[in-house]
Amino acid sequence: MIRVGDAARAPEFPDAARSALANTQLRRNVRHATDIIRGKRGLVVAEMDDWQALRDAGSRIKAHVLEHLDTYLTRFEENCTRAGGQVHWAADADEANRIVIDIIRAHGQSEVIKVKTMTSDETRLNRALEAVGIAPYETDLADLIIQLGNDRPSHIVVPALHRNRAEIREIFLRGMHLTELGREPEDLTTAARGFLREKFLRVPVGFSGANFLVADTGGVCVVESEGNARMCLTLPRVLITMAGIEKVVPTFQDLEVFLQLLPRSATGERMNPYNTLWTGITPGDGPREFHIVLLDNGRTRVLADAQARETLHCIRCAACLNACPVYRQTGGHAYGSIYSGPIGAILTPQLQGMEHSQSLPYASSLCGACYEVCPVKINIPEILIHLRRRIVEEQGPYLERLAMKGAALAFADPRWFRCAQTIGRFLQRPFERDGYVRTAPGPMAAWTSTRDLPAMPRQSFRQWWAARGAPRA
Amino acid sequence: MLIDLFITCYNDTLFPETGKAVVTVLERLGHQVEFREAQTCCGQMHFNTGYAAEALPLMRRTIDVFRGSGPICVPSASCVSMMRDHYPSLAAEAEDPALQAGVEAFLARVYEFSELLVDKLQVTDVGATFPHKVTLHTSCHSLRSLHLADQPVRLLQAVRGLEFVALPHHDECCGFGGTFAVKNAEVSTAMGLEKVRSIQDTGASVCAAGDNSCLMQIGGLLHRQGAAVRCLHLAEILAAREAGANLPVLRQAQGRPERSRGTPEGGSHPIASSAER
Asked: What's the ipTM?
């Protein structure tokens, strides 16, 4: 079954957003964190003379890969296999989870250390593992906070962005069964280090995601800030990586483009502190067994829609989240998916199927801030409109359709338009006071619940023009 | 020069003073203005909400109405962005070469109001006087679609008596977003309230913009709060002349029953507030 976490059961965006907006602490945390990342990104992007050229290159490479995805994936498979890796193909979430569980069981293990993986959130791997008695330990600091707090990630790069330090301290105290814990960042990281080191050294199976798959070498690249992924990728005897099929790039040299675009866009750093690259297995160095699960889970469905295919360019930098005025108000949970913000609004409905998540393509004012910062030039506003169109064409809400058809009819002829203006002026009479409508009926009630609506003046422009008899051409 | 006016449907219906002000400014500069009464709507609302099938005939109508026109002045950046960003693809999709050619010829003549003045007519001083402290809301479409630079600012700075004050976080969306403002009213309001705070922090008594759609959002919030800040389309400020003794009241005036019915020319002044007198 194709699945994006629990998105199929998520509440509609406007409803979820309402509860997020009521949480002032969450909004403060989100605003504070996104402001910091945006500021840092702005500085390191501004210092690049060739930033726009890099974006073009990133976009072109991704478009090229998507045109020839079959070629590059099989090339990756050949080269990875030749280097000692074992490649598995998973059509959907359940198949991917089954593959991972089988590998862990084949080694007789009941624990796995995990890092840097959104695809496994997509497939709900942890739930599947726990159901068969395998304990997953998240080792990325933010993911650890999420796991210990029984929480959901709210940001693509900074999953615990909605939590502040005091909240994290409480989560650690409870989740790590500590009796005392200081309040400084160092105290918290020391606690996490103690908690995680023991697992790094003991658990023999590691699990990760991937930022890039390199077709011409069969190599895999993971970038991170903490070094915990490096531990996860090098210490265990068995390493399992799960990656979406769109993660492949043609050549090692293409990383030059993406390893500039990604850190600057994601964390406002010139380079990620840890860049781990490995190819298959190397005897005497690192894991003795390496498996990679290539996950479709709806991606070929996205690929099939030429007008929305660009969605698969995404390198998960989350610059669009940080720039988005909607995300900055609501945080990520309102999007009902691990993919939140503007990219989530286009990716989740496409992966999950358009019958779900119908409110997501409308969770945007189309301000364009996302497109402006996207390092691989995904025209998110354009795709949002395209998806809205698909929703309308497939069904669309009945009353809205009626209203839109009515409006189209009124605009079809200036006589009808004038007539509609007259009717509007008549209908607004009971609601108008001093040139404003303070309580409107019907769908406009949503407007006047917080805002006054200017009433239609007695004379439209066209009436004024007609009455004016002014100098004409 | 003969200049055609595409007034836009909501300016026609809700904000006629803006259209009148555009006429005033262009005529003051010695141009002839034409309003083709067959025009209605560019199709933006339909298109952006997912109703492309309904937007297509509106685009056709707009192209037909303006066939053979001179430069077309549009006092709305978002309508211009609808035309520039989506008309070509909509026409291509219709597989109608004549329509595509029509769109291309049409777009070559379309100017947003401040573009027309500064870029096409090479004017920044339009002979306006407006002795108030003014800040400028730059709409998302003007910034990220039209890539307007400082045209509106230069126009405002050339106005006599006007004190211009830059708006912090000017590139943040006001939260209007067409049907977004109703479909996601709470988020839209939260975004708008931040914009309103930024505007109030400037100490300006007037917030100007080239899009009445944004101003409907910002002004609607301000008016609900009973705030003293007024919202005015850029054109209405540029149409203003010497402040007369008897100032008619425009949009946003508290507790005043009437809007101005007079033409902007001839000593009338599009703003007055008790706070400023």
From this structure: 0.94
B182 closest CB neighbour out of A396, A436, A446: A446
Query: What are the domain boundaries of chain B?
Result: 2-120, 133-276
User: What 3 state SS string does A172-233 have?
Assistant: HHHHCCCCCCCCCHHHHHHHHHHHHHHHHHHCCEEEECCCEEECCCCEEEEEECCCHHHHHH
* Strand ranges (E), A71-145: 85-90, 111-115, 135-138
Q: Which residues of A touch B192 (CB under 8 A)?
A: 451
- The answer to whether residues A240 and A100 touch, using CB atoms and an 8 Å cutoff, is yes
With an 8 Å Cβ cutoff, are A400 and B49 in contact?
A: yes
What is the side-by-side strand order in the sheet with A436-437? A432-433, A436-437, A453-454
- Count interface pairs A-B at CB distance under 8 A: 201
Q: Are A148 and A170 in contact (CB under 8 A)?
A: no
Fold of B133-276: Rossmann fold (3.40.50)
Question: Shortest CB distance from B34 goes to which of A363, A367, A472?
Answer: A472
Give the nearest chain B residue to A371 (CA atoms): B144
Closest residue on chain A to B255 (Cα)? A434
pLDDT 10s digits, B162-185 = 999 999 999 999 999 999 999 999
Structural domains present in chain A: 7-300 (3.40.50.10420), 408-468 (no CATH)
Task: Report the distance separating Cα B181 and Cα B187, nearest Å.
Answer: 8
| Facing A411 at nearest CB: one of B41, B187, B188 | B41
Q: Is A363–B177 a contact, with Cβ atoms under 8 angstroms apart?
A: no
Which residues of chain A are within 8 Å of residue B177 when distances are taken between CB atoms? 364-367
> What is the rounded CA–CA span in Å between residue B53 and residue A260?
42
Shortest CA gap A302–chain B (Å): 19
What pTM, to 2 d.p., does this model score?
0.93
CATH architecture classification, B2-120: 3-Layer(aba) Sandwich (3.40)
Express each pLDDT in A329-372 by its tens digit.
999 999 999 999 999 999 999 999 888 889 999 999 999 999 99
